[in-house]
Specification:
The protein has 235 residues and is of the alpha+beta class. It folds into three domains: 54 residues, RNA-binding S4 domain (Structural Genomics Hypothetical 15.5 Kd Protein In mrcA-pckA Intergenic Region, Chain A); 89 residues, Pseudouridine synthase I, catalytic domain, N-terminal subdomain (Alpha-Beta Plaits), CATH 3.30.70.580; 77 residues, Alpha-Beta Plaits (2-Layer Sandwich), CATH 3.30.70. The chain is 23% helix and 29% strand. The strands form three sheets. Strands 5, 6, 7, 8, 11, 12, 13, 14 and 15 form a nine-stranded mixed beta sheet that branches. The protein has a four-stranded antiparallel beta sheet with strand order 2-1-3-4. α1 packs across α2. The protein binds uracil. The site of uracil has 8 residues, from α6.
């Protein structure tokens, strides 16, 4: 692929801006200044730097953001900044979108991608991608509540009960809940349906992706192709 096209596909601006960055000697590959926009480069495993910042070539982008509280999962946020403001400009230019939404006060694992097909697959209940939530509840969590969440509760917008794929109390006021779908405010509404109230919500995992090795709150990392394949593996 032409070097100018590489930069363009990776979100570094218009074709003219990308050619300009290269022509000004601001792009390096393997420590060598690459100043010819027409240079043909192999994108497989390509690493390059733009204005001193290292980048990896990704034909499609999938990143994991450790969402802090106080950010909205919307392109046009109403009351708080958008989670997109936590991403660097090239990823925003590529049009990354959150895979499903977390509420403004929910923290933890949020995937973002520019691959619409992947968003569809990861959010479709058919794919059963498990999402694990750590809940802090206002009232003590008891066995009856856990059993109801596992058996299924009816929410106000759908007569079909929704059930937790897994649920366990992790403390007097905390529980771990696994869902394979993602309805609006689902965890909060499920807690309310069993007579409790969600006062804190953290998503600790999607599929096998956790925050065990970071990133820290407010930071992001690339999701590897192996991790991407594991997310979509049949369950
Ligand atoms: N369920 C909720 O109620 N809120 C979230 O942010 C995610 C799941």
């Amino acid at each position: 692929m032409r070097l100018a096209q590489v930069l363009f596909t990776q979100g570094f601006g218009t074709r003219r801006v990308c050619a300009g960055l290269i022509g000004q000697g601001l792009v390096s590959i393997g420590g060598r200044v690459a100043d010819d926009p027409d240079e043909d480069v192999d994108t497989d495993g390509l690493r390059f730097s733009v204005q001193g910042r290292e980048w990896q070539f990704h034909a499609s982008a999938l990143v994991l953001l450790n969402k802090p509280a106080g950010y909205e999962c919307s392109q046009k946020p109403k009351h708080h900044p958008s989670v997109l403001s936590l991403l660097p400009a090239p990823l925003r230019t590529r049009g990354l979108q959150p895979v499903g939404r977390l509420d403004e006060d929910t923290t933890g694992v949020l995937l973002l991608t520019d691959d619409g097909t992947l968003i569809h697959k990861l959010t479709s209940p058919k794919h059963h991608v498990p999402k694990v939530y750590e809940v802090t509840a206002r009232h003590p969590v008891d066995e009856a509540q856990v059993n109801k969440l596992l058996a299924g509760v009816v929410l106000d917008d759908d007569p079909q009960p929704v059930r937790a794929a897994a649920c366990e109390a992790t403390g007097e006021h905390t529980l771990r809940l696994t869902l394979t779908e993602g309805k609006y405010h689902q965890v909060k509404r499920m807690l309310a349906a069993v007579g409790n109230r969600c006062e804190g919500l953290h998503r600790s995992a999607i599929g096998g992706l956790t925050l065990a090795d970071g990133p820290a709150a407010g930071l992001w990392r690339w999701v590897s192709s192996e991790e991407r394949a594991a997310l979509l593996a049949p369950r």
